[in-house]
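Input for the complex:
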Amino acid sequence: SAVISQKPSRDICQRGTSLTIQCQVDSQVTMMFWYRQQPGQSLTLIATANQGSEATYESGFVIDKFPISRPNLTFSTLTVSNMSPEDSSIYLCSVAGRLGNTQYFGPGTRLTVL
Amino acid sequence: GEDVEQSLFLSVREGDSSVINCTYTDSSSTYLYWYKQEPGAGLQLLTYIFSNMDMKQDQRLTVLLNKKDKHLSLRIADTQTGDSAIYFCAESNKYSSASKIIFGSGTRLSIRP
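Predicted:
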């Protein structure tokens, strides 16, 4: 499986500011994804990060709030814009395995918004 | 829509077997997964099973799938303190493959001495 790293691992931010989370993979991958895990909850898919084109967002998530970049096959960023306390969550990136039937997750970014 | 359900908590004694259960509603499920999340960490893929299998064993882990009842279980033999974590059941279907994995709410496994 790929080795996935995320930066920052955690952050505490003020309301109204934005935070960009980076996801780096040690090998080229076709599909990358961003998830949110709210406190005590399961994972919810935010979007699929597409290389060379706009991300594909799930219902309830919009590009203005969660802009995503995917400049190449090993890197993606997720920005959480104009944050409010409700955005306090763990944000995880994942990549599809080589055979396309599994996903492997990064360590997550724990965000607290005050 | 698709749904995956798990009980929220399980407590077992160290050395006993743990059995975590999961039910799902999607009759088109192709793959079913078990992920482990330790405190403060991301999700680790423990094992997965293709829907045409009914059992998969990997060292201390045994996955059983009853496709008729849409029931999946994870058995951990000789449970150790390092097995304390949240275990997520998840599924994907043939129409979306790995791009749309639906997760259960997670079962928090605690180990007592």
